[in-house]
Write a structure and sequence with these properties.
four-stranded antiparallel beta sheet; 4 strands; alpha+beta; single chain
């Protein structure tokens, strides 16, 4: 049984469950201080919501370096390798046989020019490397952020509607192993917040 099971009462049939606790902050300074306090308290499932990028927020939250650069690197190397193998296959005359059938290559025969020459193939190598990297960046970012997400429990909160204007929020999820309704509410209330509310799912 998790801590959240022992600290939140079971909702009545048809009543929405508590998804988390939300704290509102009036400025960036208080938000950063609160983020450091929550990080030091050992919470794992929580996030900050701001109307604009806040410098130093990732460090205050204790976020680890994203794996996205490695995903993009592997995709770029895959694109480079694909381009090399594809062009080598197309230009080598050794595969143009009846045995290979539809998989036969299509070498271009020019007097005095080699079938395979790296400089001539650089443009395609570059293009496929960039293409694979760009697609990995786009879809990798969506995947790591668990997007698309058409609904978030906080969308139903009236205060949260100001998050795109001038207000800052921190939400700690009930699913966090350190979550205790009373203790977590006390932590958020003492972190310089303007208000603390439950977020219903």
């Amino acid at each position: 049984m998790s801590a959240s099971d022992t600290t939140t009462s079971s909702p009545l049939p048809g009543e929405p469950k508590t998804w988390g606790l939300m704290a509102e902050y009036s400025d960036v300074g208080r938000l950063l201080t609160a983020a450091e306090q929550i990080r030091d308290a050992g919470y794992q499932r929580w996030d900050c919501y701001t109307p604009f990028p806040v410098h130093g927020l990732d460090r205050a939250m204790g976020l680890k370096t994203t794996v996205l650069p490695w995903i993009v690197l592997m995709a770029g190397l895959t694109g480079c390798t694909t381009a090399l193998l594809l062009q080598f296959y197309v230009n080598t005359p050794h595969l143009a046989t009846a045995v290979t059938g539809v998989l036969s290559s299509y070498p271009l025969v020019f007097s005095g020019k080699p079938y395979w020459s790296l400089p001539a193939n650089i443009p395609v190598i570059f293009e496929l490397t960039v293409l694979f990297s760009a697609l990995a960046t786009f879809f990798g970012l969506w995947g790591l952020n668990r997007l698309p997400r058409y609904h978030h429990p906080a969308f139903g909160n009236v205060r949260f509607k100001r998050v795109t204007d001038d207000t800052f929020f921190i939400i700690i999820e009930v699913s966090d192993r350190n979550f205790d309704l009373a203790r977590t509410r006390e932590l958020l209330a003492g972190s310089g917040s303007v208000a603390v509310e439950e977020v219903k799912d």
